[in-house]
Amino acid sequence: MCGIVGYVGHRQALEVVLGGLRRLEYRGYDSAGVALLDGEGGLAVERAAGALSNLEKRLAEVDGGKFAGRSGMGHTRWATHGAPTDRNAHPHRDTSGQVAVVHNGIIENFAVLRAELEAAGIEMASDTDTETTAHLVAAAYADGPTAGDLTASVCAVARRLEGAFTLVVTHAAEPGKIVAARRSSPLVVGVGEGEHFLASDVAAFIEHTRDAVELGQDQVVTITRDAYRVTDFFAQDVEAKPFSVDWDLSAAEKGGHDYFMLKEIEEQPEALENTLRGHFASGGIVLDELRLTEQDLRDIDKVFVVACGTAYHSGLLAKYAIEHWCRVPVEVELASEFRYRDPVLGRDTLVVAISQSGETADTLEAVRHARVQRARVLAICNTNGAQIPRESDAVLYTHAGPEIGVAATKTFLAQVAANYLVGLALAQARGTKYSDEVAREFAELSAMPEAVRRTLSTVDQVRQLGRELADAKAVLFLGRHVGYPVALEGALKLKELAYMHAEGFAAGELKHGPIALIEEGLPVVVVMPSPKGRALLHSKLVSNIREIQARGARTIVIAEEGDDEVRPFADELITIPAVPTLLQPLVSTVPLQVLAAEIARARGYDVDKPRNLAKSVTVE
Ligand code: F6R
User: Which GO terms describe its biological process (predicted)?
Assistant: First the structure.
């Protein structure tokens, strides 16, 4: 949700800022803008609605000299307050044009601030919450105890703001300096030789430096060419946490594919390997950061899994595994619903919060609610040091690497694997599984990267099918048991990428309503359970397929290799390797991802940047 880049150093800032924005465009592409300081009191701003390329075109048309400064900042927007227009694009300025601000998040008390500014005679130039901060910083810098001190002025304004924000500010009077404040919204500092960077994500600057600094909650950072300084909102120095980025630029490039998503689908075996690596040691499962004792884990009498979207679908799978292995009740809940319905939580409740970004506002608020109720929180996250793991009692990182495509693919598989690791860790602590059983389950999990590799080698048939289905009006997805969350995930991928009506159903529910949707030629994708592992469910699903086929549906069946029983009822049969039941989603999801991507491409859509979506959703 909104990408931010800031730079002060020895290079042409415009190039650095645009390069960073290109890598952050996945965070929002409603509009983009830059503000450059020329070092002589000039502040040049350019903004454009739509994709970053619109801004680049506009910059190519305007006088290059104006944008030749060595410090500056940029923004790609995912609109919250105000339509995605030029007028609402960031950076926003104060009335004098001396202060420029870019912002990620939502300023909840902006209406009050706006009314106060308007009462003082200031005319707003946009509909955004962000613009208020530019006027407030200008006023704080002009007068009173913070006059002439940009860091102190930003601190004073940050103290007045409610909500979640990353705010990056520059003032024409201090050209070699950029100041940023953060609360519950991401910001990292890149530390180079004679240059410093600010960004929502390290991807924006890893081309230049791998040395980074993580900012804590309610902190302000001031960067100049030669130094950075971190303070709290009262301008008191605080200790910052340096770290080194352990993935390189090529990991964030497309690797020969048209789209990041296609590369990320192919990276799934490695994502699984990296997520599992190191988690089985000394005969047992080990998690990453466990600030809970073995006794705490033994005392748990209920598990809640909270997450959104694709992460929620991975959470649905966690329920099957944890209840089966640990004999403890598990509820899976959409994070956006969780805290509003007053769930029963206590010290012996474990809340597992799953989030690729670790920033999702709904999930973060669910975590906070759980902690207030004294529940223990374990985060499963793909982003080191993000807010959700920071606020949790324990963390298990999915090492899927950067995921740039907005639709989650490799992080979903990594989440499923991580959920299973959590299930096994709990089973081990609670004694519901012997250590040799845990070791066996882990070994089966460790064989999955190879099974996913095999699945990927057979997806050409799915691509062809995707092209054939490009003109379908709708597609239904059916599954039972662990195939049900897979059906939901298949439908979500299709909706978000191909803008096509798609629904996932538990196949047993068909006769309770959805069967009325079946009409001649309607494509229905069915995820079959194993004919051996789940014989009863298998035969029930075969009956479901017969029912829909009899009503004219075009049946697209995903089934294990050697499943001959279902073959006569499949208009199209897609085979996947035979693996243990709980692990089947790790292979059965893959053709559904490819199908959605291919239908979207055939319809001419950008699969990395589906309309109206952003990679991380930092507003509720
Ligand atoms: C769908 C998708 C979203 C995310 C959801 C949660 O492809 O990517 O549904 O899964 O927004 O995001 P995280 O995992 O970052 O909390």
Answer: carbohydrate metabolic process; fructose 6-phosphate metabolic process; protein N-linked glycosylation; UDP-N-acetylglucosamine metabolic process
Catalytic one among 2, 155, 308, 326?
Answer: 2
For the chain, report the end-to-end CA distance as a whole number of angstroms. Answer: 12
CA-wise closest residue to 323 among 302, 347, 296: 302
Active site residue 615: yes
- What are the residue boundaries of the structural domains of the chain, listed by start? 3-252, 264-446, 454-602
Residue 342 has φ and ψ, to the nearest 5°, of 60, 60
Taking domain 3-252, whether its CATH number is 3.55.10.10 is answered by: no
pTM above 0.70, yes or no: yes
pLDDT in tens, 204-216: 999 999 999 988 8
**Per-residue model confidence (pLDDT) at position 81:** 76
CA–centroid distance, 591 to ligand 1, in Å, is 19
Distances (CA, A) of 515 to 182, 473, 509, 518: 50, 16, 9, 5
Nearest CA to ligand 1 atom 10: 310
Question: What's the topology of domain 264-446?
Answer: Rossmann fold (3.40.50)
Instruction: Check pLDDT > 90 for residue 594.
Output: yes
pLDDT at 271: 93
Query: Strand 554-560 relative to strand 572-576: parallel, antiparallel, unpaired?
Result: parallel
CA-to-CA separations, 39 to 12, 19, 27, in angstroms, rounded: 12, 21, 30
